[in-house]
Write a structure and sequence with these properties.
globular; eight-stranded mixed sheet; single chain; Aspartate Aminotransferase, domain 1; 38% helix
Length: 376
């Protein structure tokens, strides 16, 4: 059996190697390394996939979030609502810009931001909401947008883990994640559903004025070379990374479907074990399984992870320490609601290998050992 990988970037590369190598070499030979044709082609292609939203490439997903906040002219001291159970970038950029993260709890089944906590956390200083589309499915954006409209708030979707998923919008239909809020942000970190071979990211919007400002801020605050109309940053998607993404983009929907099929196979094998909970699907969203994340009960999570490692089965804990307990942030975040579920799931979550190339043999091997652990 081929060695099980948490994310099999090498195996995926072998399947697209011929096209990818040719594309990268052609980009190098062109000499167009910064804002070259591959970048423009990728921005257009991803925008087409995302229901014709406008896409602006940038250097990474964290920059995407920072540029989005900067584009909205938020000020130091303004409050931004964000879940505590998230990767640090969602909170980090708020603090770096002198704003205040106000953290809320998550749903115990989907791990997504509790929209009912948003209104309970509002104050006159609240200016924005960052719903984090975690592990491959989306926050209830219909509710988020209703709250935002009622309270005149901006919405920045952190879509680093749900690129290509559809979720319910305010019209009652389904739209691509990242295209419902005022701005969407994503990452092309190598392990993402759509990943490059280094760092990369993008912002997206349907608002033409916002798109123009996002482009300017990501390019040193200039529209015309050497004329700086705003204080910006240097954050551009590299042409070589864009070339890699152009090869991968046509495969994204199929790869997401393969992830869903692998998740269904996990479900079938593991759903009968009382001491764990398999991932629940949000009613308002597709789940494209950036991660397949279990809840392990009775304090046995760490023991299971150790047992799996002994069987050469990788697993990961996303995220063991929520933001309100992190040393760098616990004194700066504010919290106005109980974080009961966040505190519990941080001690229980365990993510299993998940990628499009998982074989039935590998899934069976993983599940057999999980069953053996709980039956011992």
């Amino acid at each position: 059996m081929y060695k099980i990988q948490m994310v099999d970037v090498k195996g995926q590369y072998q399947k697209i190697k011929k096209d990818l190598d040719a594309r990268v070499i052609a980009t190098i030979e062109s000499g167009a390394f910064i804002q070259g044709p591959e970048v423009k082609l990728f921005e257009s292609g991803l925008g087409g996939l995302l229901d014709n939203a406008e896409v602006v490439g940038c250097a990474n997903g964290t920059d995407a979030l920072q540029i989005a906040l900067m584009a909205l002219d938020l000020q130091p001291g303004d409050e931004v609502i964000v879940p505590s159970f998230t990767f640090v970038a969602s909170v980090e950029v708020i603090v770096l810009l002198g704003m205040v993260p106000v953290v809320v709890d998550v749903d115990p089944e989907t791990f997504l931001m509790r929209t009912e906590d948003i209104e309970a956390s509002l104050s006159p200083k609240t200016k924005a909401i960052i719903p984090v589309h975690l592990f491959g499915q989306c926050v209830d954006m219909k509710s988020v947008m209703a709250i935002a409209e009622k309270n005149n708030l901006f919405v920045i979707e952190d879509n680093a883990q749900a690129i290509g998923a559809r979720c319910a919008d305010t019209s009652g239909g389904m739209k691509m994640a990242g295209t419902i809020g005022h701005i969407g942000c994503t990452s092309f970190y190598p392990s993402k559903n759509l990943g490059c071979y280094g760092d990369g990211g993008a912002v997206m919007s349907r608002d033409a004025a916002l798109v123009q400002r996002l482009k300017m801020l990501a390019n040193h605050g200039m529209e015309r070379r050497y004329y700086h109309d705003a204080i910006g940053v240097n954050s551009r998607l590299d042409s070589i990374q864009a070339a890699i993404l152009n090869v991968k983009l046509p495969h994204l929907i199929r790869w997401n479907t393969q992830r869903q099929e692998a998740a269904a196979k996990y479900d079938a094998q593991l759903s009968g074990i009382d001491q764990l909970e398999t991932p629940k699907r949000a009613a308002s969203s597709e789940h494209i399984f950036h991660q397949y994340t279990l809840r392990i009960k009775e304090g046995r999570r760490d023991a299971l992870q150790k047992f799996l490692a002994e069987k050469e089965i990788p697993s990961m804990i996303y995220y063991p320490v929520p933001m309100h307990e992190q040393g760098a942030y616990k004194e700066v975040v504010q919290c106005r609601v109980p974080l009961t579920h966040t505190n519990t799931i941080s001690d229980e979550v365990l993510s299993l290998p998940m990628h499009p190339d998982l074989t039935d043999e590998q899934i069976q091997y993983i599940c057999d050992h999980i069953k053996a652990f709980f039956s011992a």
